[in-house]
Amino acid sequence: MKLKYNKEDDVLMIELNKKPIDYAEQSGDLIVHFSPKREAVLLEILDASQFFKKAARTFPAKIQHDIFLQSSSIAHRIK
What we know:
Blueprint: E1 2-6, E2 11-15, E3 23-27, E4 30-34, E5 40-45, H1 48-57, H2 61-78
Antiparallel strand pairs: 1-2, 2-5, 3-4, 4-5
């Protein structure tokens, strides 16, 4: 799996495999690209920052706390 984020367009692309893409389907801010055999090949999340903010609010409070606490301490160590 390969992740690529385009900050300018706020799009997160998740490459699931290297199979050829035949077609894509979109539902809201999610585009799924499929192979000729209907296997998911690539996911595109449009407006990714907003998508993840909304998704984070659906997690229980403890999980939100644990995720954000961990990610902020990792970011602190990287600086």
